[in-house]
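Person: I keep going back and forth on a fold encoding question. Show me how you would write down a chain together with its backbone fold. Please set it down just below, with no commentary around it:
Helper:
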Amino acid sequence: MDPSLLHVALNDGHFIPALGFGTAVPDKVPKSELIKATKIAIDAGFRHFDCAYCYQVEEEVGMVIRSKIADGIVKREDIFYTTKLWSTFHRPELVQSALKHSLKKLQFDYVDLFLIHFPMPLQPGDELLPRDKHGKLLFEAVDLCDTWEAMEKCKDAGLTKSIGVSNFNRRQLEMILNKPGLKYKPVCNQVECHPYLNQGKLLDYCKSKDIVLVAYCTLGSSRDKVWVDQSSPVLLDDPVLCAMAKKYKRSPAAIALRYQIQRGVVVLAKSFSEGRIKENMQVFDFQLTSEDMKVLDGLNRNLRYNSADYFGGHPNHPFSDDY
C-alpha cells in the first residue's frame, strides 16, 4: 500500500500523514547525520516531518526539503511540516514572531502544523531554559488561553494551516476547549506514547473531542542521557515485542509502530540508519490481529522516558495528573 495515501483527518478539514519522521537530534549526533537521514527519509517516502524551535535544526531540515523540491522529488504541498512554540514565547505578543522566526530559518511561507510545545511558560530570552543566578528555572505566569488566542491568529494570518498542542494533560486541554470565544479547537495533542506508556485514557478522551493523538518516543526514545533515565528498560528489547516481531517476520520497531497506527494514533519515528528508515515505512504492509493488539495493550506500565524533569517544580507541569 502507498503510505502517502494514508492520512488521518484533522478537525479543521486538513489531513495529517499517519507516519511522520522525527527530527530531534541527541547531543551526540552531528547535524550532518540528520541532514543525511532527512534526505533518506524523503527518498524512502516520508512526507511528514516533525520539528521544533528548540531542536535547533530547522535550518538544516528546511534546506533538505527545499533541495528535494528543487530536484522535483516532491512539491511543497506534498510535505506536512510541524513546528512548535517554545516555552519562552508564550506571551501572546511573542507567538507570531516565534513562528515567523521558524519560517525564516526554513525559508517556507507557511507550516502545516504549529503546536504549543509544553504547557509550561518560561521567562522570555535567548536561553531555552532561563535560570537565575542560583540555577533555578525562571517560570512565567501566562494564561494558556491567551497563548492559544495568539495561535489562532497565526492560523488566520495563513502562517500555519493547523494549530494544536503537545504534552498537555486532560485538564489543560479542557482549559482550551472550554475557553469563551474559542475559534479553533486543537487538532492534535502530541505526547509520549508507546507500549510501556500507551496513554489509553488520554487517547479515549482525545477521540471523544475529535482531537488526534500524535505519538513521540514511539520506539522508546533515543536514550539521550540529558533527559532519559539510563536505568529504564529498553522498549525494543521487550521479550513480548521480540516474539511478536518473529511471528510477523518484522522488527520490534515495526510492531511498536503498527500498534499505534491500528489504534488511530499518528506515529513519529526517528532513525539515523538507512535500513531502519526504510523499514519504518513498511508498517502499512501488514496488520496485527485483535488478540495481539490486546497483548500489546497489556505491556503498559505507565513508564515515561521523557518526564520533563528539566521543568521541575513548574506549576503547569502536566505529568502529575492521572492523564
